[in-house]
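Supplementary Methods, section 5.1.

A reviewer requested that the exact input to the structure prediction be made available. We therefore reproduce it here, unchanged from the version used in the analyses.
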Amino acid sequence: MRHVDFSPLYRSTVGFDRLFGMLDTLAQPEGGQTYPPYNIERTGDDSYRISMAVAGFGDEDISIEAHRNVLIVKGEKNAEQKSEGELLYRGIAARSFERRFQLADHVEVTGANLENGLLHIDLTRNIPEEMKPRRIPIASAKETKEIEARTH
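The structure derived from this sequence is encoded token-by-token as follows.
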């Protein structure tokens, strides 16, 4: 495992503390947490989708919370399902989980649905008009003014 030292950048930048903290946490995995597996895909210019494999969980077992720049997905089985026979091998995980996703500024959750064991969470980036790039017109210097010296 490699650790990146951001201290030289702290000395020469202002206001990027959150970014460097996020890079630090991304460089260190979450204790090898791999459950449940997920995909993040770009579905448009400003839209994204997180798909999580949550087989065995129903919509009542999953909670999704969106805080400022953090999306938290939790899954917890309420009651163990009893089967009619004796369980010889458990290969389908039904353990609780919590996944956190760091969201960029102005990214909002627009919806979520559970379909065929996959939880799909749709996200959209809505940049305010005043923050979007705008074209600044350049005035040409067609009109020149001459300064005349008046003599009395």
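The mean pLDDT is 78. These observations are discussed further in the main text.
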